[in-house]
What does this fold into?
Amino acid sequence: MLVQPKPKNARSKRFLANRGPKVVENTKTAIFVRGSKTSQVIIDVLSDLYSLRKPDAINFTKKNEIHPFDNETSTEFFARKNDSSLFAVGMHSKKRPHNLILGRTFDYQILDMIELGIERCTPMREFKAATSAVGMRPLMIFNGEAFSFSEDMVRLKNTLLDFFRGEVAEMVSLKGLEYVISVTAGPPGVNGEPGLVFFRTYTTSLKKSGVRQPRVELDEMGPSIDMRIRRVRYPTDDMWKHATRIPKELKVTKVKNISRDGLGDKYGRIHMGKQEINKIQTRKVKALKKHLDAGNSKRQKMDVDGLE
It folds into this structure.
């Protein structure tokens, strides 16, 4: 574990302050590390995932002695040195061929990890479709009931969303959605083993449709990956509580008697006291006064007597 250095000048002080905790955190950085032994399949997977994650990513092309499930020291060293909270480690062995580990860190300590076995991979270079621009946010689609009731699949979904969410934005233009990531959960195996997970990536093209909304066509741009969950490491309850805590400055203060519906419309409730209608001051109109009504009735009676 690296020792936190003390700043010697204003520049180093600003650098350490930028790495420190904030109310609104910086965009998460992901590191892609190769193990001591890798295969061409793992190299292609790491390279393509790095291309999708750029520019907030660092790719290490040299081999490293790193085993996240067996020894956390090397992984936490990489996370602290590169100020990253997401990591992807690829390795290959006879026991676990084409092994990919995706994980997250909190306070430069491993929060959770999920180990995936790559069954098949078609890299991006084998597709003829145009690729998306660097730094664009994808539209994530998850298909399959397993993402709702399986704890391992829910953890995989949460990790993938954290990997590719990019910068936080309140609104996204339709033209800004240049590519789509589709993750489909296959049926489980005969012996109860986890089913395959199909990872596909498509570029979008907007066509004229004759109406206001354009017609969207998808072209597969890669990578196309078939993988299966092998091992999952969950965070401790205490660490997960600290990692998901919302700062006081970001908590929405509840305003009394004001609520919102599912569409975001605001509704207010007004509390009024007892109303006595008989004592309410109304507009004074001469035609409604009593003495005028009495005078009119006498005048009408005199006119009737004159006619007789």
About this structure: The mean pLDDT is 85. The CA atoms of residues 35 and 91 lie 5 Å apart. The chain has seven helices and twelve strands.
